[in-house]
Amino acid sequence: MAIPAYKPPRANRYDVVIVGGAVIGSSIAYWLTDAGFDGAILVVERDSSYEFSSTALSTSAIRQQYSNPINIRISQFGVEFIETFRDRMRPFYEGEAAPDLGFREHGYLYCIPPEGVEAARARVDLQRAHGAHTVFLEPGPLKDRFPWLNVDDLGGGSWGARAEGWFDSVGLMNGFRRAARRNGAEYIDNQVTALTRDGDRVTSVTLATGEVVECGVVVNAAGPRAARVADMAGLSIPVEPRKRHSFVFASATPIPGRMPNVIDPVGAFVRPEHDLFLTGNTPTPDGPADTEDFETKHDEFEDYIWPALYNRIPQFDALKVRQFWTGHYAYNTLDHNAIVGFHPEVGNFVFANGFSGHGLQQSPAVGRGVAELIVHGSYRTLDLTPLGFDRIVRNEPFLEEAVI
């Protein structure tokens, strides 16, 4: 197959340049164009195959079980968007069936150790006060609901029976991307290698192919490479790549009933994938990774994940790994939450970074919010101000207890 000829940018100046065209960058482009923004938009994606993007390698789940109201509301809009995705995308699929994201609303089940019960109950009360459907189950009712679960070492479980589950990550990204392009956003397969800054503004971006493009606003949506892009503007953010290994396995013993995404206290998770199961954990040790390192650490499954699964679900005594992959979190080392909004001093530089594994589920709301900032100068729907860069300067974490 012939390799398509390189296509340079169609112009030498754009009102908005988005660095990174995966789910966050494409969501921003979509919402800008959906809002009727009449400026020129350029999305620069270094790998248009998206083979190694965090979006494509995500485990593609969404939950409302957070301890902070803004994260709950962000996810609630994410679920609404996923459920209405086909209708929203229909205008951009002329003559074709708009995609269904295959949302599997199986819920999340957090297994809570005895010492964590009080905090877990408080989180459930908060979530329910903000419209979530979470319930707290004591060990007896938890065992009744999920008879295959070992509850002997638990104080209970936090279960989200509705509006939580998993879906098609690439389908979401492709929908954003297709709609943005149909609405006029320009995508190029290239890489930003430098930013030119003049005082309190970034004036241009330099591409790997040598072109220099002037910009009105530049948006950092570079995922695990976010710190590199910020550094090009003389800025610093505490975001680094962290490896996350995923394993798909078969079990000799099936799990009956509607199995949720089970989160063990040690950090391992497991959920059904048709006749198979998907699992992963926070690696041991967990530290910064090279952006090009996607090698899977197989002893993570043997030494840490399988023992945790067998303890929690005794039917998992005979497992066989069928598939595996490794992706990267864009990990915010300050507080594991997103950094969103304009820089307070470099007035045309926008952050959409550091999602720490939550980017996919938060992309609809964050893309909409960033578009509102660019178009209107303020948030019009959800106020994402608590996720702003100011907290990084103050070294004040945005507290969120329910981080996986």
TrEMBL record:
<dbReference type="GO" id="GO:0005737">
    <property type="term" value="C:cytoplasm"/>
</dbReference>
<dbReference type="InterPro" id="IPR006076">
    <property type="entry name" value="FAD-dep_OxRdtase"/>
</dbReference>
<dbReference type="InterPro" id="IPR036188">
    <property type="entry name" value="FAD/NAD-bd_sf"/>
</dbReference>
<dbReference type="Pfam" id="PF01266">
    <property type="entry name" value="DAO"/>
</dbReference>
<keyword id="KW-0560">Oxidoreductase</keyword>
<dbReference type="GO" id="GO:0016491">
    <property type="term" value="F:oxidoreductase activity"/>
</dbReference>
<dbReference type="GO" id="GO:0032981">
    <property type="term" value="P:mitochondrial respiratory chain complex I assembly"/>
</dbReference>
<protein>
    <submittedName>
        <fullName>FAD-binding oxidoreductase</fullName>
    </submittedName>
</protein>
<feature type="domain" description="FAD dependent oxidoreductase">
    <location>
        <begin position="15"/>
        <end position="373"/>
    </location>
</feature>
